[in-house]
Amino acid sequence: MKTYMNKSLGQTVPVQVPSNAEEFDQLAGRTGACVDEANRNVIYRGWNHAFRDNFCEALEQETGIDREGEDQGEGDKKKFVHTEKEQPFINRLLSTGAITEEAMQQIASTVGESIKFDPSPSTRSKKAPKEIVALVDNAFIAIEDDSHALTEDKFAGNLAQRLGIDTFESQFGELTKESAITALQAIKEKEQRERESSLLG
């Protein structure tokens, strides 16, 4: 075992954790538990998001029906943003008979096979502070968990509120891990400027 310094609720707390896969499996009571948990973690943190984007694009191409959206921003910052979330879009396709569940499952399998399982560190972690990357990763894990109260709309709304803007999409486009990281970095810079102004004022 080894000591891991975990940050929670503003405190740094020591936690005794396994130092290798064998110790993890022993604690879990079964062989392969560590690898299974690592696989789930990689899927939650990256693979799922890539699948959702690619799957919806494939459904649009197959059915000829686009997800609802609108242009937001002005000038060089103008971009198309999906206002219809993935699941409502999928439900609409099924309810209107645009595609069958069997055909949708075949497309899902094909898309899934095309997405690489990549446990290597993301290149974006070199540009953004680790705590911001971890916060966004954890937020998207919670969003994927149907039992959790956090939704994409709520997360985007919270970010927009902290930045003092009308909507997240108006400045950062569609909510993705990368755009959320950019927003959190902007929040950090905004709060730093406010702290500096209060010291000078």
Helix and strand arrangement:
Layout: E1 2-8, E2 11-17, H1 21-28, H2 33-63, E3 69-72, E4 79-82, H3 86-95, H4 101-114, H5 130-144, H6 152-163, H7 168-172, H8 177-200
Helix pairs in contact: 2-3, 2-4, 2-5, 5-8, 6-8
Fold and architecture overview:
The chain folds into 3 domains: about 1-30, no CATH class; about 45-120, no CATH class; about 120-200, no CATH class. The chain is built from 8 helices and 4 strands, in the order ββααββαααααα. It is flat and about 55 Å long. Helices cover about 60% and strands about 10% of the residues. The protein has helices at about 20-30, 35-65, 85-95, 100-115, 130-145, 150-165, 170, 175-200, and strands spanning about 1-10, 10-15, 70, 80. With about 200 residues, it is mostly helical.
Largest sheet properties: 2 strands, antiparallel
Output mean pLDDT. Answer: 86
Sequence of strands across the biggest β-sheet: 1-2
- Unreliable segments of 5+ consecutive residues: none
Q: Percentage of helical residues? A: 55-70%
**First-last Cα distance:** 50 Å
Our Rg estimate from Cα atoms comes to 20 Å
Number of helices: 8
User: How many E-type strands?
Assistant: 4
Structural class: mainly alpha
Q: In percent terms, what proportion of residues is strand?
A: 5-15%
Tally of individual domains: 3
The ordered string of helix (H) and strand (E) elements is EEHHEEHHHHHH
- Shape category: flat
